[in-house]
Design goal:
Blueprint: H1 3-16, H2 24-60, H3 67-75, H4 89-119, H5 132-147, H6 156-199
Helix pairs in contact: 1-2, 1-6, 5-6
């Protein structure tokens, strides 16, 4: 058994000790995880971001255009002084604006246009038979939208459609919760397999 496996096994048991109760061993492992994660993030940021995309192209290749993001990045440190803290609003404004400019079209395409295109799929298949999946999607979208239509009281046909929309919402929430639980269980099973096989060699 190599040294890395021993350390990983001990730290896994330390994390799992929280299942009994909160204890200093768990807190030590949690603090170690946070510290190692921050250290790893800083190293990756320095090598892959600052060195590869900033300092080497700027000083080795003479790309003077990079002076602009360098200056904006340095202005972020102005927040540490009360008299110059207002200068940090400039890079923050650029960061929020550029982030929104990139995120809005991506989210619009992924969460709106893709969803709309899925609801306009043909309801008749190439063989002339009804496309059950497309019909279910259309009914689910319409009934779910009527559930969130609050300008009229949910009575009659509108009320029935809203109740059907509630059913589709519950199915969605249930499947999302089930997917989350299964992903956590998959992680837990992987850790148990590591402990029993690689660390304890029970099988």
């Amino acid at each position: 058994m190599d040294f890395g496996t021993i350390i990983a096994g001990i730290l896994t048991l330390a994390i799992l000790s929280f299942l009994y109760r909160d204890n200093p061993v768990y807190k030590m492992a949690e603090s170690l995880l946070i510290g190692v994660s921050i250290g790893y993030f800083l190293v990756i940021t320095w090598t892959n971001t600052l060195m590869d995309t900033m300092f080497e192209p700027l000083f080795a290749k003479g790309d003077l255009f990079l002076l602009i993001p360098l200056a904006l990045g340095l202005l972020m440190f102005a927040r540490f002084h009360q008299k110059t803290s207002w200068l940090a609003k400039i890079p923050i404004g650029f960061l929020i604006g550029s982030g929104a400019g990139v995120a809005i079209p991506a989210m619009l395409h992924a969460r709106t246009l893709k969803q709309m295109s899925a609801t306009v799929a043909p309801i008749i298949s190439e063989g002339g038979l009804p496309n059950v999946g497309s019909i279910v999607v259309i009914v689910g979208v319409i009934s779910t939208l009527t559930y969130f239509y609050f300008s009229r009281e949910h009575k009659g046909a509108l009320g029935k459609s809203a109740r059907l929309g509630t059913f589709f919402l519950m199915v969605f929430f249930g499947t999302t919760f089930g997917y989350t639980v299964m992903s956590r269980m998959s992680t837990f099973i992987g850790r148990m397999e590591f402990l029993l096989a690689d660390f304890l060699h029970l099988y």
